[in-house]
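Practice problem: DUF4199 domain-containing protein
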Amino acid sequence: MFKVYSRYGVWIAIVLIAYFLLLKLIGLHQYPAFSVLNGLIYGAGIYLALKKYRDGKSKFKFEKGFEVGLLSGGIATLIFTIFMAVYMYQIDTELATSIMERWNLQYALGTLMLLLTVLIMGFVTTLVLTLSFMQLLKKSWNTKDGNRNTLK
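Answer key — structure tokens:
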């Protein structure tokens, strides 16, 4: 299980970093609206991690699948937040200021607030997507014909 969520967590983080750097190359990295696509990246990675874990097991337990989803997204979130911290504190120190000015916020903790926002958004996205995907991937036992309500 460690192999699955660590591998997919690192890959999610790599794709998130590549997407951010692509936005930087185009000049759109200052617009937080483009971070909506981060949810698609998280979703694809978590879904693939859950599918990989489920396919390797004869009996798929909800708790273990939930753990795989949370940890793969959590690892990706931590790696991406560390990358953003290095980027905002060392490479582009004006990014936080320009984003805070667009939001009309005058806080002295601009960079720290953005890093906290990246961290919280990553964990919340991970939690919501993991809960959603587990509903699709779990074996239903609520109805007599429960198997027709699950993805195969």
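Discussion: The longest helix spans residues 62-91. Students who identified this feature from the tokens alone can consider the problem solved.
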